[in-house]
Amino acid sequence: MLNGVFVKTYPSSPFDRQEILRYAGCKNDFAAGTALLEDALCECEKAFSYRVCYRVFETEDFFKRFQAQSKALRKNLDGCDYTVAFAATVGLDIDRLIAKYANVSVTKSWLFQAIGAERIESLCDAFCADIKAQAKEKGYYPRPRFSVGYGDFPLETQKYFFAELDCARKIGLTLTDSFLMSPTKSVTAVVGLSKIEKEEKTGCAVCEKTDCAMRRK
Amino acid sequence: MDFRKFLQQNTVYLDGGMGTLLQKAGLPLGELPERWNVTQAGEVQAIHAAYFNAGSHVVATNTFGANCLKFTENELEEIVRAAIENARLGAKKSHGTQEKFVALDIGPTGKLLKPYGDFEFEDAVETFAKTVRLGVKYGADLVLIETMGDSYETKAALLAVKENCDLPVLVSCAYGEDGKLMTGASPEAMVALVEGMGADAVGVNCSLGPKQMRGIVEKLLKVASVPVLVKPNAGLPVTDGKDTYYDVTEEEFALETAEFVKMGARLVGGCCGTTPAYIEKLTAKTKGISPLPITDKNRTCVSSYTHAVAFDKPLLIGERINPTGKKRFRQALAEKDVGYILNEGIVQQEKGAHILDVNVGAPDICEAEELPRYVKELQAVIDLPLQIDTSDSAAMEKAMRLYNGKPFVNSVNGKRESMAAVFPLVKKYGGVVVALTLDEKGIPDTAEDRLAIAEKIVAEAAKYGISKKDIVVDPLAMTVSADKNAATVTLTALRMIRQKLGVHTSLGVSNVSFGLPARDTVNAAFFALALENGLSAAIMNPNSVEMQKTYYAFCALKGLDENCGEYIRFATEKLPAFQTVVQAAAQSGNIHGETPLQSAIVRGLKTEAAVACESLLGVRSAQEIVETEIVPALDTVGKAYEEKRAYLPQLLMSAEAAKAAFEQIKKNMSQAGSSVKKCKIVLATVKGDIHDIGKNIVGTLLENYGFTVIDLGRDIPPETVLNAAQAENAPIVGLSALMTTTLPSMAETIDLLREKAPAVKILVGGAVLTEEYAAKLGADGYAKDGMGAVRYAEEIYAKIK
Prior knowledge:
The structure holds two protein chains of two kinds.
Chain A: E1 6-10, H1 17-23, H2 31-44, E2 50-58, H3 59-65, H4 71-76, E3 80-89, H5 93-102, H6 106-137, E4 141-142, E5 146-147, H7 158-165, H8 167-171, E6 174-175, E7 181-182, E8 186-194
Antiparallel strand pairs in A: 1-2, 2-3, 3-8, 4-8, 5-8, 6-7
Helix pairs in contact in A: 1-6, 2-6, 5-6
Chain B: H1 3-9, E1 12-13, H2 19-24, H3 36-39, H4 41-54, E2 58-60, H5 73-93, E3 101-106, H6 121-137, E4 142-148, H7 151-164, E5 169-173, H8 187-196, E6 201-205, H9 210-223, E7 228-231, E8 237-239, E9 244-246, H10 250-263, E10 267-268, H11 276-286, E11 301-303, E12 308-310, E13 315-321, H12 327-334, H13 338-350, E14 355-358, H14 367-381, E15 386-389, H15 393-402, E16 408-413, H16 416-429, E17 432-436, H17 447-463, E18 471-474, H18 486-501, E19 504-508, H19 519-532, E20 537-540, H20 545-557, H21 565-579, H22 596-602, H23 606-617, H24 622-642, H25 648-672, E21 680-685, H26 693-704, E22 708-711, H27 718-728, E23 732-736, H28 743-756, E24 761-765, H29 771-777, E25 781-782, H30 786-800
Parallel strand pairs in B: 1-10, 2-3, 3-4, 4-5, 5-6, 6-7, 7-10, 13-14, 13-20, 14-15, 15-16, 16-17, 17-18, 18-19, 19-20, 21-22, 21-23, 23-24, 24-25
Antiparallel strand pairs in B: 8-9, 11-12
Helix pairs in contact in B: 4-5, 4-11, 5-6, 6-7, 7-8, 9-10, 10-11, 13-14, 14-15, 15-16, 17-18, 19-20, 20-21, 22-23, 22-24, 22-25, 23-25, 24-25, 25-26, 26-30, 27-28
């Protein structure tokens, strides 16, 4: 379908404060925390750059190139002619803020990490919405995105993402020898494209771990 | 012809894209293009020949990713050898009589350097050096470092070139649409860095088309004193659903890139998506344009990994990172309390310092070890340029070498020995150096003699190839209470040095008031006089409100502050914050029968907790305050958290408030020299893991509960953990791992500790761990969160106490 790696950049979107608090481990607002959160949001507003690089594979070609043995992924991509592999990052500055405040205010450091988590999730959502719209024009429907590290999709697969997507050059995303990404607020994932429309259950709704502290209500 | 000479007189045409052409020639996706130098030499030669035919003076070898991370040393050598040979044969096969040069092409490694990645700076230098040495061996005419996305990696590559050859070297970076490198550096910062280290050209390539590059090119041309290089992409890749192509045509590309030549760019070519046809159009379009001369912009500037700070208006250099006369700071240095020292830096940045002086010289401190360490730590979290302040030239060299940016160095003086030690470093690492007007005969009493020393220093620097724009003279502020003429001499010297020698100046302003009461008053007045006499930068205390007032008022009065904007912001926003007298915590409410300190901690109010603690310190012992106030308050919140009545951020806010109270006790103790501590705990995130916020939270909580935490940081090898546990005689080691891929390194660390330090209790935690898994790894304890770690540590401490 498409040849080569493409890059998309996104403008800043509004912060979802409820989500941030959820990532920070708060089920509800609390006054002192809200004030600190506003302060943190103000400080990091310009710290983000939203970049995604992606590449479209025929699904069988994807399995070959990524040497992906995962059964869970097979199930996820079942019936998909194409697979979009993407890497997304919100940049290094938020890591710098997290590190800076580790020494000054560990609360703020913690809030910055929660903000970073919300930012990268919202970037992935925005990208996947674009993919959905584009696919629809061609009569395809996306499956829920599936990340490295989910189920039996091993972290070691990261090296194929980095080789196939040229992440360092395209979006400044790098991989350590132990397969961790830097900047840390980054995601690699695949989205299957199928001609068959299926109910889209995503996120917490598909997860079997029902006692998770982060679970959405 | 010598390339440097050629560059002086001509517009130099570079080549265009390589990758897309190789793919067209049949390079399969996924195959490393560098291998084609050996296996498909003819195809590579044909591409080089086509570029020479199109008019390129310089082609870059097909070695973008040729480094020892991707290839074995034998294959690397074969690739580089063949690549240079291919370029040479391409030149031979091509028609055209222009000068032809072969550049060894060096691209980024794809790894991020520490502290945010896992690649050591020196390993990066050595990786590039291996490729460079091969390039030299096989006869490259010059080196092209290109598509760099990180200032630190760029420095490593440039250093590798400079340490291994005298070849001309062009340095080009890939900027994003925001006009910055991926890791944040501005064009001005990159110019400062690479020009300082002696690059022959500085530039921009890849990522953007010519249109989007314009702003970056303008910035480069404005500040660079060396030739500017521009290699745009053929726009951005687009697709029609079937084929992928770049959206800028040859004609458009040539037109827009020709504009850069008119603006003064001296080396032009193309990057991704460009072909010999693009270069041919470009050479045709620019033939009649005579190259603009390269001019010295005469900028004195230093830089960090994000921005450059130029001496075009008076600068404030924060002096607080210095142990001289500060007991608490010396204690922090001795205890390797990195957090305390970083905080000193962060506060100064918040107060508006432009540059931070870093001095860790104290008895018992090995500066050659500690100075580079703190420079690294500071650069991880503070984006201000640093002034490396030491008289130990070994420490100076190490710190300059790993400094990410163009360093500021403090200092050299007129002594032969000093100049012989410092100038080679300034030349090599591209710094700006403070020159003190003293020599073997001491500090002269007259302004004329101080000027004479400054002249001597500038002349000597010139012999090393150091321009006077990279020297900032400090004519030395002496104590006015010891000599009534001291200030006058300094001020006269300032004026003379500025006017006659034409260099920038700095002063350690506060020396002037030594021995006097209300020193700030004298300092601020002297500061104003010094500024009026030509002071470019003051080494001062940014916390001093009097100094700040003088600075902002001076800039407004001298027309250095457009619409008095900075002054107004200072007066309306910063000044009130300076003057806020911290309200006594007595007002912070007294609910549920809590004392003010307890209340402040429970509610997570830092300032109030500090004030309440300070007032208690006059009447009660430190130990009593800890036991009856701080610990009970922490326990209240800790229990609430454990019972899920409080959230993690609430627990953390209380921890911070308690920390603020402890800081007051520490201040008090470093005066009294006593200590109320439980046992030591070594904390580390294991090797390979770079996530450390969980460990940081654990560390903060443990400290609150009176444990001495030795936080080794993240990505810590097993041996380092063992060494620390043994050296500190710590009964407990806490290890954190966040990912499944780093659990093996946790297991390794545990095994090593078991073998070599069997008495140590090992506590583990982290997102992927469970109680069962911790037991399987052989840990003594598992903590699911920070409070869990505290409970475990208390249990162990109770047993060994």
